[in-house]
Amino acid sequence: MTAETTRVVLVDDHPVYRDGLRMLLESVDEVEVVAVAEDGLSALDVVDGADADVVVMDVQMPGLDGIAATRELTARHPHLAVLVLTMSEDDETVFSAMRAGARGYLVKGSSQHEIVRAIRSVASGELVFGAAIALRVAAFFAGRPPTPDTPAFPQLTEREREILDLLAAGRSNPQIAQALFLSPKTVRNNVSNIFAKLQVADRSEAIVRARDAGLGRL
């Protein structure tokens, strides 16, 4: 091991992908995988006990998701670089990761070269994004307004956005069910899906996110 070795913690709840990525990185000079974790909560303990430079973080995980884990880890360890490596590339997830303190964002399917280069780059203090994501980030900071055919929270279905709009307006589940002619169970299931897709912990957080996006103004 040399002084330039980048020490990495991998956080992913899919063991096959996690183990494969570990093998890939361990074959690369100057990158050392010092620990792995299977979810965000485990990552907090693992990183606290590891002298890591970079955490490669998935987003969708049980318990504590990758966005919340990134926020906590960067608060605890300001020197730590988090590189998000996930399946999702929707704008909401990308910008949530950035706000949480991530220095890089790649989608799964990126090549070994891209992943290794991103790890080294974020370790040296750079911001790194995959090509398609970088274009959207640049457009965002250039102040370009969203196009009319790009709704808020594109990861939601039309029905879920409709329900979130009513949530943001302060409607209860029974009121939403009545307004949309749905069963209470269907509303509950949709609300649970909304929480999962927006990666929020409860109704209050979902309402804040929705109102920030302009929903709830019925």
Average pLDDT value?
86
Task: Give the biggest beta sheet.
Answer: 6 strands, parallel
CATH topology of the largest domain: Rossmann fold
Based on secondary structure, the structural category is: alpha/beta
Biggest sheet: strand arrangement: 2-1-3-4-5-6
Can you describe this structure in just a few lines?
This protein has helices spanning about 15-25, 40-50, 65-75, 90-100, 110-125, 130-140, 160-170, 175-180, 185-200, 205-210; strands at about 5-10, 30-35, 55, 80-85, 105, 130.
Structural description of this entry:
- There is one protein chain.
- The protein is built from ten helices and six strands.
- The mean pLDDT is 86.
- Helix 7 crosses helix 9, helix 7 (158-168) packs across helix 10 (203-212) and helix 8 crosses helix 9.
- The protein has a six-stranded parallel sheet with strand order 2-1-3-4-5-6, sandwiched between helices.
- By secondary structure, it is α/β, with parallel strands linked by helices.
- The N and C termini lie far apart (61 Å).
- Helix 5 (112-123) links the parallel strand 5 and strand 6 (128-129).
- Helices cover 50% and strands 13% of the residues.
- The chain is elongated.
- It folds into two domains: 6-141, 3-Layer(aba) Sandwich (Rossmann fold); 158-212, Arc Repressor Mutant, subunit A (Orthogonal Bundle), CATH 1.10.10.
